[in-house]
């Protein structure tokens, strides 16, 4: 993952940028954030004096050449060597090594922008964010990602939904529309989640927030499958894979693994064909919108703080701005589980089946113990083994098949089982105070800070 074989090298001679980079673009990538503002600690023992010196020197070199119109180019070799100095820590799994690697990558990305090596810049961005996390580091890489993406936007990208694959994409859409005419065989028998037309934030807060699930129509989904594939074809993402023979198709299987690949490769291997060499794949719970400049579904105004969130004590994790995750796959499965935040999930294309259980009925879904206490031990809620999980018989559940443009509100700690109906893509929005689930002495379940 830390391979820099494609980076190349140049002499350390400084020169002013000429050609396609305009002055305003140089200004956009001109200034680096203060070292103190970066979430990295170079004082860690494992970093070592040599690596610390290389990173500090390269960072200083970039800062010394941030001025001018246009600014001077930084030393590319120095940036590459600084990042290379972090590899040993990453490979050894040292604490904080991913953030130190991200610092080196930040310098490499900036250097690639000045060299107008846009694809190499984006590769470096992706590898850094996959390692260190888009939520923490995304804002620091965004100027380089945005500039490189804009430079490549006018270039027709082979693959995706364009070029020679148009006929296949058209046929795929026709097939999906045909599938949407029928509900999945396992649908029915549960309580229907209400659909509220023209739901307002005020009505949502008064009538639904923290109380029960609801579905609304999103005014503007914005993110489409075509946009994802055309704009993100070459971008690298982490894909969860497991053996097709494992019926759970989730992180609960022994065959579960994570692989880094391009979005286009993921589509070709796991979405269009559903499986590759006996394995299924799922781009699951990945903050892709923090990694890549994609449009966002229009639901942020419905991510409203509740009284419980307002009362969260100082020091409690609390998301004022929603945490957004992208979910893309074909016939995927998410096991029965609950989340520590309030949640909207928007279906951007395709379909997904949701089955929900009230938090108060947690005993009936048999939570696991230990680190996976937010996951049910019921392997298949659609056909539970009642000899092992007798309380599942007769327990009330809500269900809904989410279509393109639908948004489902899942209250914090409500259990939900999710199953893709063919191919589809969605975006989840977590917000509010992060809370844990606990069972009181009297047997009642409660949320705690």
TrEMBL record:
Gene3D superfamilies: Cupin. InterPro entries: Cupin_8, JmjC_dom. Residues 261-446 form the JmjC domain. This is JmjC domain-containing protein.
């Amino acid at each position: 993952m830390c391979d820099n074989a494609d980076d190349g090298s140049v002499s350390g001679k400084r020169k002013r940028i000429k050609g396609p980079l305009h002055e305003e673009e140089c200004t956009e990538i001109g200034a680096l954030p203060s070292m103190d503002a970066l979430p990295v600690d170079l004082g860690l023992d494992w970093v070592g004096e040599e690596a610390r010196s290389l990173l500090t020197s390269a960072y200083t070199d970039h800062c010394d050449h941030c001025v001018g119109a246009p600014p001077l180019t930084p030393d590319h070799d120095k940036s590459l060597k600084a990042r290379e100095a972090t590899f040993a820590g990453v490979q050894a799994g040292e604490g904080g090594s991913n953030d130190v690697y991200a610092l080196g990558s930040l310098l490499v990305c900036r250097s690639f922008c000045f060299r107008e090596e846009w694809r190499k810049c984006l590769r470096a961005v992706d590898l850094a964010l996959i390692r260190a996390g888009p939520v923490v580091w995304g804002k620091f890489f965004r100027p380089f990602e945005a500039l490189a993406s804009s430079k490549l936007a006018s270039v027709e990208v082979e693959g995706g939904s364009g070029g020679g694959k148009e006929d296949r994409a058209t046929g795929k859409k026709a097939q999906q529309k045909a599938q949407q005419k029928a509900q999945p065989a396992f649908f029915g028998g549960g309580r229907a989640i209400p659909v509220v037309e023209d739901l307002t934030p005020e009505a949502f807060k008064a009538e639904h927030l923290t109380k029960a699930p609801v579905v609304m129509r999103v005014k503007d989904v914005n993110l489409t499958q075509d946009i994802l594939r055309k704009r993100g074809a070459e971008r690298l993402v982490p894909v969860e894979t497991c053996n097709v023979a494992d019926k759970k198709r989730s992180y609960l299987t022994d065959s579960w693994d994570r692989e880094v690949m391009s979005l286009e490769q993921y589509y070709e291997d796991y979405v269009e064909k559903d499986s590759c060499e006996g394995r299924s794949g799922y781009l699951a719970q990945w903050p892709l919108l923090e990694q890549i400049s994609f449009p966002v579904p229009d639901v942020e105004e419905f991510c409203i703080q509740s009284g419980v969130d307002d009362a969260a004590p100082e020091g409690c994790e609390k998301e004022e701005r929603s945490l957004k995750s992208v979910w893309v796959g074909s016939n995927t499965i998410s096991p029965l589980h609950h989340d520590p935040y309030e949640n909207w999930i928007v279906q951007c294309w395709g379909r997904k089946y949701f089955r929900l259980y009230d938090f108060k009925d947690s005993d009936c879904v048999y939570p696991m113990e230990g680190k996976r206490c937010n996951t049910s031990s019921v392997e298949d809620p659609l056909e539970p083994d009642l000899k092992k999980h007798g309380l599942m018989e007769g327990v009330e559940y809500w269900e809904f098949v989410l279509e393109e443009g639908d948004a489902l509100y899942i209250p914090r700690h409500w259990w939900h089982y999710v199953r893709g109906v063919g191919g589809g893509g969605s975006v989840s929005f977590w917000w509010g105070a992060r809370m844990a689930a606990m069972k009181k002495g009297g047997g009642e379940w409660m949320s705690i800070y």
